[in-house]
Amino acid sequence: MKVLSITMLAAMFLFTAACSSSEADTSSSSTETTANTGGQENVKDDDSQQDVVKVAVGSKDHSTLVAALKQADLVTSLSNAGPFTVFAPTNAAFDKVDKATLTALMTDEKKADLQNILQYHVTVSALIADYLQDGQVLGMVNGDNVTVSIKNGKIMLNNSATIIASVPASNGIIHVIDGVLLPPSK
């Protein structure tokens, strides 16, 4: 009887160990698969509110901004939880930038400059337009500041770009602007 009990316990132990090993192998391979497929930007969810990147991707007026975010490797960062306030220049705003300058910024050699410019369009908070005040200074992700002014009911940033629309997102808010903000020279 004692031998039978020991045999049964050993069999159960081996069976449990084999199952655990199989489950561990399965979970590690699915973890590897997940890790190789990208970050938060690759999550498919058609039911929830879209994050700031997905909103921009869905806008025909922001294709230049989306291309720049991809070139600067900032898609994953802006797809995370946030909250973010993104001042998003339209394609028409990018058209005001010298073509040669814009083309140069979209190269690997100028990626750091492009990241600096794009990060100058983002602050870590969710500020609706009603919260912005004349003279308010916003700290941007790149470490520089943007100054808000209100003239004739229009909200301007650094006296060079006007907010023309605002769109809520799951991880913040997007303020569509009619100009590209350039960080101060260092």
From TrEMBL:
Gene3D superfamilies: FAS1 domain. Residues 23-37 have a biased composition (Low complexity). Keywords: Signal. SUPFAM superfamilies: FAS1 domain (SSF82153). The keyword Signal applies. Residues 1-24 form the signal peptide. Residues 23-49 are annotated as: Disordered. GO terms for cellular component: extracellular space. Residues 49-181 form the FAS1 domain. The keyword Signal applies. This is Fasciclin domain-containing protein. It comes from Aquirufa antheringensis.
